[in-house]
Write a structure and sequence with these properties.
60 residues, mainly alpha, 2 helices, elongated
């Protein structure tokens, strides 16, 4: 995998962590939505799926 692809994956992970943190914060501020941990884990699962697709597509 090239350096550019690794940088893209790193940026994707960083942005994904920001999104997961944002989801957890929003749900924490509005508890009627659902449990914060459930939403954060769902967001993390989506992040893992996207990173897996990117890494698989970058492999020769």
């Amino acid at each position: 995998m090239s350096t550019l692809a690794l940088l893209v994956v790193l940026l994707l992970v960083l942005v994904g962590l920001l999104v997961v943190g944002g989801l957890a914060y929003v749900v924490y501020r509005r508890p009627m939505l659902t449990q914060p941990l459930t939403v954060a884990l769902a967001g993390a699962a989506v992040l893992v799926a996207v990173v897996t697709v990117v890494v698989t597509a970058g492999a020769p």
